[in-house]
Amino acid sequence: MKAVMSGLCVLALVAAQGPAMAQSQAHPDASKPAPNVHTLSQPEVDPCEVPGYILFGEGKLEHVKKAVEENKRLTILVVGSGSSVLPGTDGAGKAYPGRLEEVLRKRYPGVEISVVAIAKSRQTAADMTQGLDKALLDRKPDLVIWQTGTVDAMRGVDPESFRTSLDEGIDHIIDAGADLILMNMQYSPRTETMISLSNYADMMRVVARDREVPLFDRREIMRYWNDNGNFDLNLATKDVTTAYKVHDCLGRALASLVVEAANLDGIKARPTQ
Amino acid sequence: MAPAIPTDRDLRLDLFRGLALWFIFLDHIPSNIVAWITIRNYGFADATEIFIFVSGFTAAFVYGRAMRDYGFVVSSARILKRAWQIYVAHIFLFVIYMGQIAYVARGFQNPLYAEEMNILEFLQQPDVTLVQALLLKFKPVNMDVLPLYIVLMACFPPMLWLLLRNATVALALSVLLYALTWEFGWNLPAYPSGTWYFNPLAWQLLFVFGAWCALGGAERLKWLLRSRITLGVAIAYLVFAFLITLTWHFPRLAPLVPRWLAEHIYPIDKTNLDVLRFAHFLALAAIAVYFVPRDWAPLRSRWLRPAILCGQHSLEIFCLGVFLAFAAHFAKVEISPGIPMQILVSVLGILIMVAVAWFLSWYKDATARKIAARPVDRSAKSSLGGEA
Q1: Using one digit for the tens of pLDDT, what is the confidence trace for B243-293?
Q2: Which residues of B touch A190 (CB under 8 A)?
């Protein structure tokens, strides 16, 4: 059903926006130039593949563009909660912030890229807003990736307060002269009947639209991977293998969004022209 | 199949409430492809609006008669008894829910979801959790509708009294409460934080509006509902809502919504029964009334009987639906999450709902016949009545 609907959607878009839009539907993937374990072992299916209709950077990441093209130095700050980290001694490198750093470094060897993650378990959006100023001052990031929503949903924080916290955080980040990407919750099939995410995911979408900030729709992306059979997110296992793979893909998808939303060096030209 | 309960009640209400119960069941199964058929994907309102409106309508229909016949005290006692039944049903579902998640907690330790697993912490302090659940402050996912229903029923007697005296004043008061709730942000507190997912102070509008329609309001609106202009406006609004919801399913379409419009309509507040949702329900209702007259022949056909039967035993079938949605989710997680399984559990669930509704009807008919057969107890039949 969803596939049919998305087909219709693409048709509608082509009709509405003309051929230019149709070309950009062939979605450029930032991860393509760097070969990796997944694509080598499964040359035909890329498990990290994200359909174009989910990943869409509408906002313009001006500071990122400037940092990469002029300053040759890009600092990204990831602010998040427990779902931005992974356990284990090499957890930091395997979690999506570490993966994002590696992908971007391979892609732009001439740019000094660092991704710093400040992620603590059980943090609501309001909690994260508290420490934000200090982190912005210390790190002076060009881009902040703000992952939030899960803990607010678990605690049942009033959605309006959640929205206020998001708005406050965004104000701080903009005042500090950084670009911003919002990232919503993970798709977690096992806990779907325990944590009601929709209200909070909708609120993040509203805020992203309102403030013209790109939203990395982690929830829909992971749902797609699960439904499409790329990953089995139902798996009851203590093993970290799947978690590592999922975070690797998240890092890649995030890199794609950064590249697209910042409109970096002729990316749009590569696949179609 | 047994005949539907022979009353002078409007079968359309039972039909639409039955459909609403099916939709609520389907929507409560997470990631369920069959849920694409439900109305929430094509407009602002979902099945909850239908359920609450019809519940208000039937409550006024059943207890309004009782209040005329037996007076305020007796009928109020009956309404409160009903609220108590719903409360007990809610607690019963809560226990099932606890069992399910305690089971999940034991077996699931995927490192990817360490954060999400913190939700199970409340199992470690059952004293607090259980008391908060009994106070209706702690409400797990998908268990928000019955607490709303309980509060609406428990507060219904004075409202019904006023509706019978002066329906217009009663409706005006309800609208006033709704407006004040929006103005001042009133809501009931929830545990561990926040407020009720369905704010009773806002949702009462739909319930009271349903009751108002039952007690003569529908008659008064007849000229409006027959008008082709109303029909046109309603259809136009449904199309508008459909186009907006399309942009939720396909984020790439979102920029096509003009900024000024987006600023006006978002967020569409389900907690406080957003005006857009209420209007969407009104449009649906207007179209339904226009095309489905009270004596519509298919209402007596066997094809619609399953939905009507479910609608006539709404409390039992609603609770069953919540339980079946848990079970369906469980089957998906433990056996297979795929599309064939989603279709299987959806169809099976609805079949079980229909079977139980049929059994309840059969039982009710059988007891009613027994009572009718004994001339001494003939008076008891009317007090048996129906429940809202």
Answers
A1: 999 988 887 788 888 988 988 898 899 999 999 999 999 999 999 999 999
A2: 104, 108, 110, 113, 116, 333
Count up the domains in chain B and report the number. 1
Q: Tell me the two tokens of residue A11.
A: 């048709």
Q: Is the ipTM, as predicted for this complex, more than 0.90?
A: no
Q: Verify whether the Cβ–Cβ distance A242 to B112 is below 8 Å.
A: yes
Range of the domain at B218: 11-384
Q: Which residues of chain B lie closer than 8 angstroms to A154, CB-CB?
A: 116, 118-119
Number of helices (H) and strands (E) in chain A: give both, helices first: 13, 5
Chain B: closest CA distance from residue A47 (Å)? 17
Token match 């209040």: residue?
B67
B337 cis-preceded (ω within 30 degrees of 0): no
The C-alpha atoms of residue B265 and residue B257 are separated, in whole angstroms, by 11
- Binary contact (A156, B142; C-beta < 8 A): no
Give residue-wise pLDDT tens across range B161-178. 999 999 999 999 999 999
Residue B6 belongs to a domain: no
- Which chain B residues are Cβ-neighbours of A150 within 8 angstroms? 115-116
> Is residue B209 assigned to a domain?
yes
The per-residue pLDDT for A266 is: 54
Q: Which residues on A lie below 8 Å from B243 (Cβ)? A: none
d(CA A190, CA B265) in angstroms, rounded, equals 33
Indicate the helix (H) or strand (E) that contains A39.
helix A37-41
Is some CB atom of chain A closer than 8 A to the CB atom of B107?
yes
d(CA B160, CA B269): 28
Separation between Cα atoms, residue A111 and residue A120, nearest integer Å: 29
The beta-strand segments (E) located in chain B are none
So where are chain A's domains?
28-272
Q: State the Cα–Cα distance between residues B285 and B57, nearest whole angstrom.
A: 13
Distance CA A224, CA A39 (A): 18
Computed over every residue of chain A, the mean pLDDT equals 82
Closest CA to A38 of A251, A186, A256: A251
Give the separation between CA B76 and CA A114, rounded to whole angstroms: 68
CATH code that applies to domain A28-272: 3.40.50.1110
Q: Which two tokens stand for residue B266?
A: 């978002």
Measure the CA–CA gap between B325 and B341, rounded to whole angstroms. Answer: 13
> Of the candidates B246, B251, B333, which has its C-beta nearest A56's C-beta?
B251
Q: CA dihedral defined by B72, B75, B79, B85, rounded to 10 degrees?
A: 140
A5 CB near a chain B CB, below 8 Å? yes
Distance of CA B102 to the CA centre of its chain: 27
Measured between CA atoms, how close is B257 to chain A, in angstroms?
Answer: 11
d(CA B231, CA A74): 58
**What's residue A59's pLDDT?**
63
CB B30 within 8 A of CB B141: no
User: How far is Cα A218 from Cα A100, in angstroms, rounded to an integer?
Assistant: 14
pTM over 0.90: no
Q: B interface mutation test: which of A6, A185, A190 has the most B CBs within 10 A?
A: A190
Nearest to B193 among A87, A155, A188 (CB): A155
Q: Does A53 touch chain B (CB under 8 A)?
A: yes
Greater confidence (B311 vs A8) lies with: B311
CA neighbor of B360 nearest in space, from B311, B288, B302? B311
- Does B95 map to a domain? yes
If 0-12 CB within 10 Å is exposed, 13-18 middle and 19+ buried, where does residue B189 land? exposed
The token duo for A181 is 């990407």
- The three-class DSSP label of residue A112 is strand
